[in-house]
């Protein structure tokens, strides 16, 4: 006997993808996540394609994964998908040491982040 499966946290019209331990600060990642919040996925993919930020490539891959999850796992229509949520969380921070003058040391912080993208199917009449 096993315990019953936990119910799905998202509604039936939603799918998500999570990208963990990205080597960028949450503040910089949030700037790119703001670009795509609330947009249709075709527009969001185009914005990420032509963004000059280095991390935009990884965000684009995560968005494509969320689209694929929606299409393959939940049978949602790709043309009607909208980015409902794109939120950033803090992950670990590597602490490093940089030698300075007179025997002192300076601390260097190398932060990591998590990215979660939730896409939602909206009817064409609402968009």
Task: Describe the structure in your own words.
This protein has 127 residues and is of the alpha+beta class. It has a single domain (14-121), classed as Ribosomal protein L22/L17 (Ribosomal Protein L22, Chain A, Alpha-Beta Complex), CATH 3.90.470.10. Helices cover 29% and strands 35% of the residues. The protein is built from 3 helices and 3 strands, in the order E-H-H-H-E-E. It has a 3-stranded antiparallel β-sheet with strand order 1-3-2, with helices on one face. The radius of gyration is 19 Å and the shape is flat.
Produce a short descriptive summary.
This protein has one domain: Ribosomal protein L22/L17 (Ribosomal Protein L22, Chain A). The protein is built from three helices and three strands.
């Amino acid at each position: 006997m096993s315990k019953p499966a936990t119910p799905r946290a998202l509604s039936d019209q939603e799918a998500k993808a999570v990208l963990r331990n990205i080597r960028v600060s949450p503040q910089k990642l949030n700037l790119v996540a703001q670009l795509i919040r609330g947009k249709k996925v075709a527009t969001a993919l185009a914005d990420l394609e032509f963004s000059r930020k280095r991390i935009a490539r990884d965000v684009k891959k995560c968005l494509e994964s969320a689209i694929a999850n929606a299409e393959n796992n939940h049978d949602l229509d790709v043309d009607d998908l909208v980015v409902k949520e794109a939120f950033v969380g803090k992950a670990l921070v590597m602490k490093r040491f940089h030698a300075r003058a007179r025997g002192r040391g300076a601390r260097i912080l190398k932060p990591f982040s998590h990215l979660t993208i939730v896409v939602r199917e909206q009817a064409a009449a609402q968009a």
